[in-house]
Amino acid sequence: MSVDDEMDLELLLTQYFRRKIRKGEYEFVFAHNGLEALTMMVKHPDIEIILSDINMPEMDGLTLLAKVNEMRNPALKVIMVSAYGDMGNIRQAMNNGAFDFATKPIDLDDLSVTIEKAIEQIDYVHRMQKEHSQLESLKGDLVIAGEIQQAILPRVFPPFPDLTDRIDIAALMTPAKDVGGDFYDFFRIDDDRVGFVMADVSGKGIPAAIFMAVSRTLIRATGIHGGSPASCIEYSNHLLAVESVDCMFVTVFYGIMNINTGQVDYCNGGHNPPYRLTAQGGVEVLPMAEDPMVGAIDGMTYHDCRLQLEPGESLVLFTDGVNEAMNTAYEEFGDERLEATLATVGGQNCRQVIDSIKADVAAFTGEAEQSDDMTIMVIRRK
Predict the structure, then answer these.
(1) Per residue in 209-243, pLDDT tens?
(2) What is the pLDDT of residue 205?
(3) Element at 219 (helix H, strand E)
(4) Phi first, then psi: what are they for 183, rounded to 5°?
(5) Is the pTM of this model over 0.85?
(6) Does residue 64 sit in helix, strand or coil?
(7) What is the three-state SS of 122-151?
């Protein structure tokens, strides 16, 4: 849009840019003062470049520039025009946010270059706005994905109302980003047995979240049939390895607890060994996993292990987002601090144990950003 009270400028512009106008590359509209220009902008909201004289009746160019600035549209560029000797006003216009300036008599070749520069800047702004919109949309999708991910994990505690006199279970997953790769699960197999899972998918973000959902579904669907933990993990490993993308894998601890006897059969596929809390307040770590992670290599063999959970004893399962949580000095929380925390939780129920671990980790990490998903599950035989 050209804004100038001198009528001959309209003819000069339409004649000089006639080829671009015919090709549809440029479209000019004309106003004779700032008030007309504002009216034109309402009729033509797609105007992106304003070529404005400074000295005009009714509303001058500097006032028009101020009105344009109030619109806060970074894709709207103003090129100011004034006499060569009017450098004070030109300088004020540039300080007030004008894109560039031209002096009268106008050098149309130079003006053409200035307009092309403005178009480049406008195109850049549009690209950035588009990318920003896409990022905002993606961020919204991630928030929804995080909500869906949390929703597929068991969240009702106690999970088995008819078993509250025999077992206590609590769990929590806190992702480092909008979505995470950790998961926990537990489910009834039959009247006597409950299956429970703690797992950590390699990687971060959306790929890990998708692999997490697939892994959880496979392990649950296989485990609910009641086979041994090793057979369940072996079968899940086969299915995941065959379909694995980018060599993703998951570390898994899968256990089956007999709620009447306290016997726990389990298989540890490359996961952190859980801790056993004795009724007397002791803290014992289970043996390190000797079986590999799940989903990396097809045909791997997995093995069953067994322990006896006495009344009043608990198992604390976690992912490495707990013991590897770092403070601002890049020091890890570590196994020793975790064991020290567990040594103080005697008499607490499962939820209180989780809260104690979270509080101690938070106190240690301070203002450091959470670097990994943090998942904890505690199962206690009453």
Answers:
(1) 888 989 999 999 999 999 999 999 999 999 999 87
(2) 75
(3) helix 205-223
(4) -160, 155
(5) no
(6) helix
(7) HHHHHHHHHHHHHHHHHHHHHHHHHHHHHH
CA distance 89 to 209: 58
User: What's the CA gap between 354 and 358, in Å, rounded?
Assistant: 6
Strands 77-83 and 49-53: parallel
Burial class (CB in 10 A: 0-12, 13-18, 19+), 34: buried
Distance, in Å, from the CA atom of 259 to the CA atom of 380, rounded to the nearest integer, reads 10
Q: What are the Cα distances from residue 349, in Å, to 133, 164, 337, 376, 382?
A: 46, 12, 20, 14, 10
Query: Within the chain, which residues score under 50 in pLDDT?
Result: none
Answer whether 174's CB lies under 8 Å from 238's CB.
Answer: no
The one-letter amino acid at 200 = D
CA distance 122 to 117: 9
Residues in contact with 280: Cβ distance below 8 Å, sequence separation at least 6, in sequence order: 346
Cis geometry, peptide bond prior to residue 274 (ω within 30 degrees of 0) = no
Which among 25, 378, 16, 23 is positioned nearest to 168, based on CA atoms? Answer: 378
Residue range 45-93, pLDDT digits in tens: 899 999 999 988 889 999 999 999 998 999 999 999 988 778 888 899 9
Partners of 196 in the beta sheet? 186, 255
Q: What share of the chain is helix, strand, coil (3-state, %, to 5)?
A: 40, 25, 35
Rounded to the nearest 5 degrees, what angle is found at the Cα of 185, between the Cα atoms of 179 and 188? Answer: 155
DSSP assignment letter at 367: T
- First CA to last CA across the chain, in angstroms? 80
For residue 152, the one-letter residue type is: I
Q: Would you call 181 helix, strand, or coil by DSSP?
A: coil
| β strands within 238-294, DSSP E | 250-258, 263-269, 275-277, 283-285
Pairing of strands 49-53, 30-31: unpaired
Q: Count CA atoms closer than 13 A to 265's CA, side-chain side.
A: 16
